[in-house]
Specification:
Chain lengths: ~450, ~170
């Protein structure tokens, strides 16, 4: 098999920059496809070559499979890295790449499909002996839902079979809410995914979101790199992630990671993947949620505590190499935390705040890493998601990491646009966060009601 | 009667392919299917002359500037697609999509338009191929074709100027 010499980056923003750096490190050239809005982006400047693939609207550029593959072929690339989001979990895109002789840096189209169908994924998890949330297969009628509810009890969740991102999802707390929630979730799922099939899952209150990073290679090896705790969420969107989890003991880690590895092995999984669980703090039980068949936004916290480069590893695996890391007993070194900094105004309902960045000064120093595509004078376009940077810190233990994060955030100076940096400082200063007592509903139910935006009022006074 | 040709293609398939080629209006067609390679050329057509529709060797990427370090993310300008300066009074016809640029309707055929020609707004000026789909681009503006900015067979990016038209010279 010919070696990968030139990778086409089919993404934008910080992950495009991350992929370019990883490729350069292992001596692989990069070509990036950019929309007209991203011609002056950092990714376009760092890549060996940038080609304009379409107008700003994602559907005509970053989601335009034909243009991306054509661009990769025309520029002599031999592989495509899809990053996360956009086409990263689109099996048709993976297939189009391989059909045209390009290696898709990710799992096979079949594995993407198998895990993308959530009911199918749950069945695969059960088959692999992975605990799943009590629930149902496809519910077609309200009567089916009522029967399932009688068996598993309230509250429960309606979820979309093709789901993700909280769309087509409803919490049902009592029998008289079933019909309305069923109809609402059906409509939302149809609109979001073109597939209105729903299933039911028992709703675990006070749950943590914990996920296991796995890597599989083409030789049948599957390894794990420990867990990430992503319980600080707003509207099912992760804001802060850390590794290791303050709630996970070595025994739980062993059980969770061997479950994740079994599932990946059953899929003959190749590449980086993440098996997500909910963890019931009260009973210490964990249940399979879903498997993501891509590199995750929060992969750096795992890199910090395991000393790995997951993106470079993805490229090597696609090139036929055996996974070189995580083969022995896992050693987690210290503690890492990541804050996702968005161009948003927390005090205005997290309204996006795109525009020109005047001042951009990111913290540097030992144990501090900032993954970003921003620089002074960069214009944050209004067409894409609002994440502008990931601030990642590494400390010898959790309190040390929290301290470093506070310092790093205080040294992050951005003007010209609003950001969530100050909001993050307030979250990590909260006693519940510092004591590691956060569940996925905590931010909205406990933290937000008491949150007062810091500087604004002072500045006005 | 169907007969296997040893490639998974039946005689019927081959005849159908030849019929399609015949009706296509192209002077030269290459088909690759597994190990099978078919190369059909109408008599009189000059092979390999213009539109080399077989992929060329990978073009080298543009030379890279030294990477700025992560701690100083303020890179110098480098070869991102920069809008070329359009001479005053001229109109650039731009690529509506990324793809491969062809000046002629088929390999070996004369170009749609030559430099110096006066064209109407609905005159076809080139083809842009994306994943085997051939899109004919119309001028969109009338005038005299001053200059083509792109070589036949080259990859063009979205929004890239392809040719310059002088609208004052409209017939």
């Amino acid at each position: 098999m010919r070696h990968i010499r030139r990778v086409f980056v089919a993404n934008r923003g910080e992950i495009a920059v991350r992929i370019i750096h990883a490729c350069r490190k292992i001596g692989v050239e990069t070509v990036i496809g950019v929309s007209t809005a991203d011609r002056e982006s950092l990714g376009a400047r760092l890549a060996d070559r940038a080609v304009c693939i379409g107008p700003p609207a994602s559907v005509s550029s970053y989601l335009n499979k034909d243009a991306l593959v054509q661009a990769a072929l025309s520029t002599g690339c031999d592989a495509v890295h899809p990053g996360y989001g956009f086409l990263a979990e689109n099996s048709a895109f993976a297939r189009l790449c391989t059909d045209n002789g390009l290696r898709f840096i990710g799992p096979s189209a079949e594995a993407i499909e198998a895990m993308g169908d959530k009911i199918n994924a749950i069945a695969a998890a059960k088959k692999a002996g992975v605990p799943t949330v009590p629930g149902s297969d496809h519910v077609m009628r309200v009567a089916d839902a009522l029967a399932t509810a009688a068996r598993i009890g309230y509250p429960f969740l309606f979820k979309a079979r093709a789901g993700g991102g909280g769309r087509g999802m409803r919490i049902v707390r009592a029998e008289n809410e079933v019909e309305e929630a069923f109809n609402g979730a059906t409509m939302e799922a149809r609109a979001a995914f073109g597939n209105d099939a729903l299933y039911i899952e028992k709703y675990v209150e006070s749950a943590r979101h914990i996920e296991i990073q796995v890597l599989g290679d083409q030789h049948g090896n599957v390894v794990h790199l420990g867990e990430r705790d992503c319980s600080v969420q707003r509207r099912h969107q992760k804001l802060i992630e850390e590794s290791p989890s303050p709630a996970v003991t070595p025994q739980i880690r062993d059980a969770m990671s061997s479950a994740a590895v079994r599932l990946a092995q059953d899929q003959s999984y190749v590449g980086a993947g993440t098996v997500e669980f909910i963890f019931d703090s009260a009973t210490r039980e964990f249940y399979f949620l879903e498997m993501n068949t891509r590199v995750q936004v929060e992969h750096p916290v795992t890199e910090m505590v395991t000393g790995t480069d997951i993106v470079a590893e993805q490229v090597r695996i696609a090139d036929g190499d055996e996974v070189a890391i995580g083969r022995g007993p896992l050693r987690l070194d210290g503690h890492a935390i990541e804050c996702r900094i968005n161009a948003e105004m927390p005090e205005a309902g997290f309204r996006p705040s795109p525009g020109r960045i005047d001042e951009w000064d990111a913290p540097v120093g030992e144990g501090v890493r900032v993954d970003t595509h921003c620089f002074p004078g960069y214009f944050v376009p209004p067409f894409y998601d609002s994440m502008i940077a990931k601030v990642i810190v590494h400390g010898r233990d959790r309190p040390d990491a929290v301290r470093r994060m506070d310092q790093a955030l205080s040294r992050l100076r951005i003007s010209g646009i609003a950001t969530t940096a100050a909001f993050h400082r307030a979250v990590i200063a909260h006693p519940d966060f510092q004591q590691g007592r956060v569940t996925t509903d905590w931010l909205e139910r406990r933290f937000m009601p008491g949150y007062a935006p810091p500087q604004r009022s002072e500045a006005a006074a | 009667m169907t007969k296997e040709t040893g490639t998974g293609l039946t005689q019927d398939d081959v005849e159908r392919i030849l019929r399609l080629i015949d009706e296509s209006g192209y002077d030269e067609v290459r088909i690759e299917y597994g190990d099978l390679k078919v190369h059909v050329r109408r008599h009189g057509a000059i092979g390999e002359a213009s539109g080399a529709q077989t992929p060329a060797a990978p073009p080298p990427p543009a030379p890279s500037a030294p990477p700025p370090s992560a701690s100083a993310p303020a890179p110098q300008q480098r070869a991102t697609p920069k809008p070329a300066a359009i001479p005053e009074g001229l109109v650039a016809i731009r690529a509506p999509m990324l793809g491969t640029f062809y000046r002629a309707p088929s390999p070996g055929a004369p170009p749609f338009v030559e430099e110096g020609a006066v064209i109407s707004a609905d005159a076809p000026v080139c083809i842009i191929e994306v994943m085997k789909l051939f899109n004919t681009l119309k001028a969109g503006t009338s005038g005299k074709v001053v200059r083509f900015l792109v070589e036949n067979g080259a990859m063009v990016e979205f929004d890239q100027p392809l040719l310059l038209v002088d609208p004052r010279a409209a017939g």
